[in-house]
Amino acid sequence: MTKFILILLIALVFEAIGVVFLSGGLNQIGEPKTINATEIMLLIKRGATNKNILIGVFFEAIFFGFLLYLLSQKDVSIVWPLTALGFIITSLAARIFLKEEISSVRWAGICLIVLGAGLVTWSAKQKEKEPKEQPRASTDYGVR
């Protein structure tokens, strides 16, 4: 499980880097002035050529590769809740690199999410410790 958690944490760092770059790029390209096809196409063009958005997509793709590996190793009901740890890493990255203000209420919410992820992990450990049930011999010989 230690190897799994280490790979998960590395993946979540890539995700946080990607999200920070995506956010920075989206702030750079701005919002459409009006909602029409021409303006939307210009916005898409600006986004598709924005260096920060492209770097962000690259790091998110790396995260996705790690996620595919993790999902091949463990149940999705274990892996997906544990990605909640990314909320801490991403929030810290947003605080440090984007200078975002994060209120104590928001931190409390993040902690509750991570606590839930911890409970999921604990339940997986408990499941591994439970003795496997032996199949019972059937007394029903198909006769009714």
- Unreliable spans are none
Specify the biggest β-sheet.
none
Strand content: under 5%
- What would you report as the Rg, rounded to the nearest angstrom? 22 Å
Number of E-state strands = 0
Q: What's the overall geometry? A: elongated
The ordered H/E elements are: HHHHHH
Alpha-beta classification: mainly alpha
Total of helices: 6
Q: Average pLDDT value?
A: 87
| Fraction of helical residues | over 70%
Q: How many separate domains?
A: 1
Report how far the terminal alpha carbons are from each other.
48 Å
How would you sum up this structure, described in words?
The protein has one domain (2-126). Helix content is 76%, strand content 0%. The protein is built from 6 helices and no strands. It has helices at residues 2-29, 37-48, 51-73, 76-82, 85-97, 104-129.
List its salient traits.
144 residues, 6 helices, 76% helix, mainly alpha, single chain
What topology does this entry show?
Elements: H1 2-29, H2 37-48, H3 51-73, H4 76-82, H5 85-97, H6 104-129
Helix pairs in contact: 1-3, 1-5, 4-6
Summarize the structure.
The chain has 144 residues and is mainly alpha-helical. It has six helices and no strands.
